[in-house]
Specification:
Chain lengths: ~375, ~425
């Protein structure tokens, strides 16, 4: 419960204070520090990799002790939080103001209160089944613990949402880099979710970390897809390999060969968008996987890209792609709109795949490491 | 996958049974199931609320006795109501104008560029007139290139000026189209968020400048609850004349269709049903209603079959079935075709009423299929064409050749015989399919 109580304390701090402009500013800084701890771990791990120390498993531990902050990291972190917040602001507004409104309007927990809460959660696309079970658990707790004050319930809501996502697991949101040869990351997903743009953003991030990155354009189907990736590779300074109108598996083969020969650190493979119920296209993906297995012993990461506006179909996407490939994480894109992307909670609950990155815009800087703490904090910030 | 509404209602039915009428008291479980079914289909929460209220009003007081199965009655009320909401008068595209201008707008990745290609192709085919496509997406890398490639595939001209001001490009394109006697101009715009004021203003400027006959919102059918924000966001800024729902060839229920109609009254004019450039259909409200309710989709089943099955081969087989000449050679080729369709379990699920018939739990063992194939392949062509000649010694040989037993060979031959008899009945029209 360490994480939850920490968050709760953070929120409590807010509500107890009178909200003058001055203080709100302070709060923002305070909150920045809390979320910082997570990132410190990430930065540490990056260093570990850079110094070739055998990689320590980086986890989102639930009990995290206060660390120390380097000035630079702190500033960097603040910038990250800001980007995160900026992107999530629009997503958050509707959701949070409704929740805040809800708790203000009700002085007692009634059936109407539950109904409205259910509406808010469903409107965030959290998933019908997940929400229904969540509501049942909540009702149970209210009855058993004899809770009647809505403000008390707010904390439990946050708690329960964390539990759904974390589920007592040790989650890693880091890319596992390989030391003997190029690290291979495969991107899959349905059409139009933003695979190509995500690759560009991730490449940019990795190049910043000093990695030599090759982009492989294996979307040989959609008109202009290879060209799109190539333009991005020029923009972010990554290597590029791709061929239009050829067999995607053979493009992947040649791409990996090139990466080995020219000693690239990372290979990011773009694949064609495919709807998960298309048997032939899913078989094609299977073939790509086999090629990678044969050449490099398999993918180090297979990232499923999901559009934040996706509804219940997201679960079906995750299930189907997981059957064919070993999905290691999700990239949730387009969170800079009004969509909340709540379906990732349902996906984590039912398929067990965690989110690794989120996309918050169209430029190369708009990719952030996903952090459930920040995500829920972002969604609930103004509520507590 | 999700349960269909019909299946869901079966569970809630016992409450109504025994009552003469549907009343406020016994309806609540049913309403809950309807509500969940619609929410699972991504119909907007508020729309669901209003919709279920309407259905409730219609259902209250209905005589249960008048219908044999109150569940069916309920499903019918829901489906009819849905169809009506989705339908309205179907409005054709407004193509009056010289040239007629159509503008495609929407979020990133909703499928505008592909739809532009499909629509241009559709218009050319239907009206045998000359379309021009205009590349106004100057932001996404290679978007212009994508449209040009589509133009090349379709042999339809694409107007572009590279990465200049989209308002200017659109204006110049119209002038160009007039000069060169194009009949239709399709403007592909960049994907944008409905809350991006700057880019939304840009769309409005294009609209002012060229006064298009149609402004079509292209929307992904997999969209969840956020659709309400997107639809109203675009509709508030631009006078939308229609909606095109894309990626309906996926397995999404597509509840967003209902949100579109309910919130804006803008008609859905087309649906995207494949990645191919002829994959654009006109919108069918009844089919959409069935889909949202998960009522099985015999049309998709047929479509899936036609997509993968060799048409000539299938025709030949069908003819031979009718003539009663169906032999093991045909059986073998049918089996090969079936394999291409993927796991049979998935196909069975698409059959309407599959659950009622107890078909959804059917597990087809691929090993057993392989055994059958091995047995047939161990026969000589002559034996396959005329299974009657297969007697004891041939059976022993076939069993040895396929690594099975004589009993298994016997079983296959018996089943084949039965199948042949059934086929005769079907082609004589003596047998009704169970749905």
């Amino acid at each position: 419960m360490g994480l939850f109580s920490k968050i709760k304390n953070m929120f409590k701090g807010y509500s107890e204070e009178e909200k003058t402009v001055e203080e709100e500013k302070e709060e923002l800084e305070e909150s920045t520090e809390v979320v910082e701890e997570n990132h410190l771990e990430e930065e540490k791990s990056t260093k570990a990799v850079e110094e070739d120390i055998p990689e320590e498993k980086v986890v989102e531990e639930k009990t995290k002790k206060n660390g120390f902050f380097h000035k630079k990291e702190k500033e960097e972190e603040k910038k990250n939080v800001k980007i995160y917040e900026k992107g999530l602001t629009k997503s958050r507004q509707g959701f949070v103001s409704k929740l805040a409104d809800l708790t203000n309007r009700y002085s007692k927990i009634t059936e109407e209160y539950f109904e409205e809460l259910e509406e808010i959660l469903i409107m965030a696309d959290i998933g019908v089944n997940t929400v229904m079970e969540f509501m049942d658990r909540l009702r149970d707790r209210v009855r058993k613990e004899n809770i009647s004050d809505p403000s008390e319930l707010k904390e439990i809501i946050v708690d329960e949402l964390f539990i759904i996502y974390v589920n007592d697991e040790v989650l890693s949101n880091k890319i596992q880099f390989r030391e003997d040869g190029p690290t291979i990351v495969l991107f899959v997903g349905v059409n139009g979710v933003g695979k190509t743009t995500t690759i560009a953003k991730l490449a940019h991030k990795m190049i910043d970390e000093g990695k030599k990155v090759l982009m492989v354009g294996a979307d040989t189907f959609r008109a202009g897809a290879v060209e799109q990736l190539k333009e991005w590779s020029d923009k972010v300074g990554a290597g590029f390999y791709g061929k239009e109108e050829s067999d995607p598996a053979s493009v992947v083969y040649d791409g990996i060969e090139l990466a080995k020969k020219e000693k690239y650190d990372v290979v990011l493979i773009d694949t064609a968008g495919r709807l998960q119920n298309k048997v032939n296209l899913m078989k094609e993906l299977e073939k790509i996987n086999k090629v990678i297995e044969g050449q490099a012993g398999g993918c180090d990461e297979t990232l499923l890209v999901i559009d934040a506006t996706t509804g219940q179909n997201g679960v079906s996407q995750a299930k189907a792609f997981k059957e064919i490939t070993n999905i290691t994480g999700i990239v949730l894109t387009k969170l800079d709109g009004t969509a909340k992307g709540g379906i990732v909670l349902a996906i984590k609950e039912s398929v067990g795949v965690p989110v690794k990155y989120i996309g918050l815009g169209e430029t190369k800087d708009d990719l952030q490491v996903f952090d459930i703490e920040k995500y829920i904090y972002g969604l609930f910030k103004d509520m507590m | 996958m999700f349960e269909s509404l019909g299946d869901r209602l079966q569970n809630a039915l016992h409450k109504i049974k025994g009552y003469g009428k549907i009343t406020e008291d016994n309806i609540s479980d049913m309403m809950r199931e309807i509500r969940l079914a619609l929410l699972e289909a991504d119909v907007n929460y508020k729309v669901v609320k209003e919709f279920t209220n309407t259905v409730k009003e219609k259902a209250l007081g209905e005589e249960v006795a008048s219908s044999i199965n109150p569940g069916d009655l309920f499903v019918k009320i829901v489906k009819d109501e849905l169809t009506e909401l989705l339908g309205g008068e179907s409005e054709p595209l407004n193509l009056k104008g010289d040239p007629a201008t159509l503008m495609l707008v929407g979020l990133q990745g909703s499928g505008k560029t592909t739809t532009a290609g499909k629509l241009a192709n559709f218009l050319r085919k239907k009206h045998s007139k000359k379309p021009l496509m205009v590349a106004c997406d100057v932001y996404r890398p290679a978007a212009i290139d994508q449209l040009k490639q589509l133009g090349k595939q379709l042999n339809i001209e694409v107007y572009d000026e590279g990465k200049k001001d989209p308002v200017e490009i659109a204006k110049n394109a119209i002038a160009y189209a007039k000069e060169n006697h194009y009949d239709y101009v399709l403007i592909d715009t960049a994907g944008r968020l409905h809350i991006d004021e700057e880019l939304m203003d840009e769309l409005d400027h294009i609209r002012e400048e060229i006064q298009p006959q149609e402004i079509l919102l292209v929307i992904d059918s997999m969209m969840g609850q956020d659709a309400i924000n997107v639809i109203t966001g675009f509709h508030d800024k631009l006078p939308l004349t229609g909606v095109i729902l894309t990626k309906l060839d996926g397995d999404t229920r597509g509840g967003v269709a209902l949100s579109v109609r309910h919130l804006t009254n803008v008609p859905i004019k087309f649906v995207g049903v494949s990645e191919k450039l002829d994959g654009l259909d006109s919108f069918d409200p009844e089919r959409m209603a069935g889909r949202i309710l998960g009522m099985g989709d015999i049309i998709s089943l047929v479509e899936k079959a036609t997509e993968t099955i060799d048409e000539k081969e299938a025709e030949k087989t069908a003819r031979r079935m009718q003539e009663g000449k169906f032999d093991l050679e045909d059986f073998l080729s049918t089996m090969k075709q079936m394999k291409k369709l993927g796991p049979l379990e998935n196909l069975i699920k698409m059959i309407p009423g599959a659950k009622k018939m107890g078909l959804t739990d059917v597990k087809i063992d691929p090993k057993q299929m392989a055994h059958i194939e091995a047995i047939v392949l161990s026969m000589t062509p002559k034996e396959r064409r005329n299974p009657d000649i297969i007697k004891a010694s041939r059976k022993t040989r076939i069993a040895a050749g396929s690594g099975t037993s004589v009993q298994e060979v016997n079983k296959l031959l018996q089943q084949f015989d039965q199948m042949k008899k059934m086929m005769k009945q079907v082609s004589n029209g003596n047998m009704k399919l169970p749905f």
